[in-house]
Design brief:
about 325 residues, alpha+beta, 7-stranded mixed sheet, two-stranded antiparallel ribbon, 11 helices, about 15% strand
Length: about 325
Amino acid sequence: MVLKIEERVILASQSPSRKMLLEQAGVQLEVVVSGVDEDVPGYFTPEQTVEALAQRKARAVAALRPGGAVIGADSVVSIDGLIIGKPADEEAAKATLRRLSGRTHRLCTGVCLMMGEKEQVFHQVTEVTFYPLSEEEIAEYVAMGESTGRAGGYGIEGIGVMLVKEIKGDYPNIVGLPVAETLRRLTDGCEILERCQGVRVQDAYALRCIPQVHGAVRDALAFVRSKVDIELNAVTDNPLLFPEDEAVISGGNFHGEPMALPFDFLGIACAELASISERRIERMVNAALSNGLTRFLTTEGGINSGFMIVQYTAASMASENKVLAHPAC
C-alpha cells in the first residue's frame, strides 16, 4: 500500500476545505472548477444527490484534463430524510441551527474518481449530534459568519466544533471529503500512480525548477548590484554645497531607504536559493529519493552517519534564513 501520491491530482471542486484536507495528506493539487449545473431531481435521496453531483463535476473536469486523476465531490446535510441546503441569509442559518439543535443529523459526501477510462463513485455518511442550543448561542454563532456558504449552516473545523456533542463516522467527511477512503481507492490499481512509482514521470521541484528559481535569484542579484553601483557613486552629504552657484541645499540623500529595500530583496533571494539547495541535499542523502546512492552518502553505515549532519545543518540554516529574510521595516 502506497501512502503518498507523488503524481499531481486534479480536484474538481472550489471548496477550500477539501483542498486543505488533500494538501494535509501530502497530495499535490490542481484545482479546476467544473461550473456544472447542480440541479437534481427532487425525488433523489441524499446519497443519490451527492453521488450524481460528484460524478457530474468529475466528468466535466476530466473532459478538460484528459488522462489525469480527477476527484469530484459534493456534500449535503440531511435530517429526517430531507436535505438541508446552504442558508441564504442569517435568519435562514438560525432556522437551520434550531432544527439541528439537540438532534442527530447526517453528513453525506459523494465522491467520483476519474482515472483515464476508469470511474469510481461512492459516498460516505457521518452522523453528527448537536448539543441543545439556546437562542443566544445560535445568534452568537451566526453573527461570527461561519454559517455563510456552509451545508447545514455550520463549519466543524472552526468555532462550529463547539456545537457538536458526538460524531459517529469519519471526521474529515464532515469537513468535506472522506480523505482516507478517497486516497486508498485512488491508489488501488491506479495506472497513473503505478507509472509514477516505477520509472519517474518527472523530477522533483527542487530539480526541474532550478532554472526558474536560480534565474530569479540571479535577476535579484543583478538588481541589487545596480542599486549598489548607484549609491557608491552618490553624494550623501547634508547639506549639499555648490560653490560655483553659491547655493546650499538641504536634503535627505543620507537616508538609507534606497539600500534598505534592495538589501531586503537580497535577503529574500538568498533564502530562496538556500531552501531549494537544501532540498537537493536531502534528496542526495535520502536513500528513498537518491536513485541508488548509498544512505547518507556513506558505504560504512551504522555508527558512521555520513553526510546526515550536513543535511541537518543545511535544513536548520535554511529555516534561520527565512527568519532573517523578514523585512527590517
